[in-house]
Amino acid sequence: MILTFKRIISSRRTITYFIAAGLFSWLYVLVRITFFTRSPYDLDSDLERRLAGSRTAHKSSRGINKNPTRHTPILLKPLPPIAPHLRWPPNIDEMLCRPKIYVYPDPPAIQEVYKRVPPVHTPYIAEHILLEQLRDPSSGAYKSYVTSNPEEADFFYIPFLGARYLNHCWFILGEKGDCDVDGQYVLPMMRYIQQELPYWNRTWGQDHLMVHPMDRTSLYYQQKDIMQNATFLTTSGDLRPLAPSVVGSRRYKNIVIPSATTILNLVKIDPLQYLTSSGHPKHKRRDIFVLFSGRYKDVQPDDVYSAGIRSLLLNGFDRQADYVIASGWGPEKYAKLLSRARYGLVPMGHTLGTTRLWECIAFGVVPVIIADGIVEPFEDDIDWASFSIKIRRDDAHRLDKILRAIPEEQYQKMQKRVWEYGRRVLLTRDSWHLIVRDLCRRRHLEGKRTIDRDNHVDLTNSFMIIQS
Ligand SMILES: *[C@@H]1O[C@H](CO)[C@@H](O)[C@H](O)[C@H]1NC(C)=O
Ligand SMILES: *[C@@H]1O[C@H](CO)[C@@H](O)[C@H](O)[C@H]1NC(C)=O
């Protein structure tokens, strides 16, 4: 029996059978793997067929879909409006809360300083404008928020005008450096607030506000540490980790505000001299495609200044027929040009924010912002994307292509939106109202008894359910 088995196994024909069977299974496995294994991208066959049929964009698709326009969307209208509480941006005419702000008087020592240091004509006067509004009994800000009784105040406003002191010293007296601003101005101001009155120490300054309207915010002062606990209202918001100002590291402490500009706040040109009430030029069309005024001629691609972006303007853009680019013009001419421009270029300079943004907005020019990492004022409330264009630095060389690809209808929409909505963000419009909305969101408001919470909406915690 065993012998018979051995003979069968060793017979030649059996060996051939074994080899053939082996070859066959190897071939079978190969064919299976090559042709019948599903790739992780395969979908079910109906969907595969539909996708194959839709590949009309590829010229090589051998005409699978003969009628590419067959499946146009049925709804040609936007979706119906949704309930106000589900909508963003919010209605900024409503208050989130109504805090009371106490404005400190100018300390006696500071009044003496002001006798020597009159206000100067520089664009860094956001500090002056915001303070004036709080001190003007006829202003909306005064009527809505100011209290003369510090005991009932939720916030305390320090009437700090450091830019006035420094600008006077730099531009009128022609001095350089810090002009002893700490000894002459910062210390007398802060000593009064921190040592003569009890309110700073109650929260170690957390509920105190002050404006820093220049590029480097509080870094002009040796004594900056004594003011760090206050909330700074600053004119540039910057998310970069090593930003030249301290703003970057105080994202949730500072409030970004619009800045004042020479033509709007010093020369006080009224855009309505040049534009109709609906924001169109009175005598011409908007025939300037792109407008830019500012420093660019000496900028190299690898400069820190403007991250090299402004070097691109030299590089061909300034020779396009419908681009108007120059180092600057007198206020009248600049205003005329703004009233005829479609897009205004707003590339970063020393900081991410620049005052020409506000000039564009005031004249109904759609701003084209090139400043990666910028935080615009009131981003929680204002839909910036609806009236401005952002181009990344890496795409800035394609600026012309990007702008010319924008359909006319979309441009018109944005232009209307700058005029009817964007202008509300200008410094002299609703600034206090918008600043207060930001203040209302601050945690340290919790437990303040005087805040009117009539308009408070409780957030549902459904987002937490999704996460768990
Ligand atoms: C507030 O605290 C500082 C530091 O502790 C102190 O020097 C100052 O006198 C205090 N101010 C008041 C009004 O008590
Ligand atoms: C800032 O606040 C901290 C506590 O958060 C406090 O220790 C410090 O003294 C405060 N600085 C000033 C100048 O009030």
TrEMBL record:
GO terms for molecular function: glycosyltransferase activity. InterPro entries: Exostosin (IPR004263), Exostosin_GT47 (IPR040911). It comes from the Eukaryota. The chain crosses the membrane at residues 15-35. Residues 98-406 form the Exostosin GT47 domain. The keyword Transmembrane helix applies. The keyword Mitochondrion does not apply. Pfam families: Exostosin_GT47 (PF03016). Keywords: Membrane, Transmembrane, Transmembrane helix. Belongs to the glycosyltransferase 47 family. This is Exostosin family-domain-containing protein. It comes from Lobosporangium transversale.
